[in-house]
Design a protein that fits this description.
This protein has one domain. The protein is built from seven helices and no strands. The protein has helices spanning 3-6, 10-45, 47-55, 59-68, 70-96, 100-116, 123-135. The chain is elongated, with a radius of gyration of 21 Å. 12% of the residues are buried.
């Protein structure tokens, strides 16, 4: 998992791992929402350009179609960039585990969640299983 994660206090390892998992699921849900909402809207904005490209595809026509429909192009590029960065982040985690900065950031967030208690929206996802085990 990484040297920094192994050096973490034992009582914080599970909550840090849960918080990281919650953040990753949220990121992928946001990417999915962008694919379901932003891409169709962007393609709708490019419908005239796409119909022209179906008949006469050239790279110049594609380029000018994106230049003159900047909002649609921005929606497509933003969705693609977020998808690629999320995939790279996931792959980096699978290959190398937690980085030192990431463990520090997650540890601070877990401590903030713990200090707020059940009033924090992520408390249930991060701490509820630990508390149930201690009460049993």
């Amino acid at each position: 998992m990484g040297h920094a994660f192994e050096a973490l206090e034992p009582e914080l390892k599970q909550p840090v791992a849960r918080l990281y998992a919650v953040q990753q699921r949220s990121r992928w849900r946001f990417v999915l929402a962008m694919w379901l909402v932003l891409i169709p809207l962007s393609l709708w904005g490019l419908r005239e350009t796409l119909s022209l490209l179906m008949d006469y595809f050239t790279w110049a026509a594609l380029r000018y179609g994106l230049i003159y429909n900047r909002l649609s192009a921005l929606g497509i590029f933003l969705t693609l960039i977020l998808t690629i960065t999320s995939a790279i982040t996931r792959l980096r985690f699978k290959l190398m585990g937690y980085s030192g900065e990431e463990v520090y950031r997650l540890r601070r967030q877990v401590q903030r969640i713990q200090s707020k208690g059940q009033a924090h929206p992520l408390w249930q996802a991060v701490w509820s299983q630990s508390v149930r085990r201690e009460q049993s």
